[in-house]
TrEMBL record:
Homopolymer. Its EC number is 3.5.4.16. It catalyses: GTP + H2O = 7,8-dihydroneopterin 3'-triphosphate + formate + H(+). One of its GO terms (biological process) is one-carbon metabolic process. It comes from Flavobacterium sinopsychrotolerans. It holds the Pfam family GTP_cyclohydroI. This is GTP cyclohydrolase 1. It is an enzyme of class 3 (hydrolase). Keywords: GTP-binding, Hydrolase, Metal-binding, Nucleotide-binding, One-carbon metabolism, Zinc. PROSITE patterns: GTP_CYCLOHYDROL_1_1, GTP_CYCLOHYDROL_1_2. The keyword Transmembrane does not apply.
Amino acid sequence: MIKNEEFQDEIGDNHISLSAKNPVRDDAFDISEDEKIEKIKKDVESILITLGMDLTDDSLKGTPNRVAKMFVKEIFGGLNPAKKPKASTFDNNYKYGEMLVEKNIIVYSTCEHHLLPIIGRAHVAYISSGTVIGLSKMNRIVEYYAKRPQVQERLTMQIVQELQIALGTEDVACVIDAKHLCVNSRGISDIESSTVTSEFGGKFKDSVTRREFLDYIKLETKF
């Protein structure tokens, strides 16, 4: 029988997601960002001191505060629903009915198992059912869901689901190809490997439409 701690390590080391939603507590926003920064600052100080670092050194004095601000305002800012981008949609007055693809959207996220970077590119597509969305909003949706502790499978699904809601259509697809530093820089330390995830909705479940999308993004992965 696997001990609970061993089971948790196995989940993290194998990058397994147990939830389709980010596991955020109900009281996550009961305190302000400034309060969170102060709490995290003290925690980072404790970690560095435990590691034996000299926080009186000029180079390290500001590190706890910098890390705390980075966590709250930058790399985990996508946890805050108040920062969710507004999806600017418009009527498809010019009746464009073919696939629209926004490819090579840069992804900077953080693995929730080791808090190490996930770096890659997202390729997103949709077929309008009467509504179109501003191109930059597609990038902002990717950025919003990436800026939180994540697993790549969940991130891929969240991007598609958000666009499906905004556009009022199931015909949305996303492929992400990314490197995980928890794989590349620790553990197996395989610097060459990357992870590819996909989510296909509506017409993109059809093999011909899916292949057209993959041809656009020049990804030689078989699905």
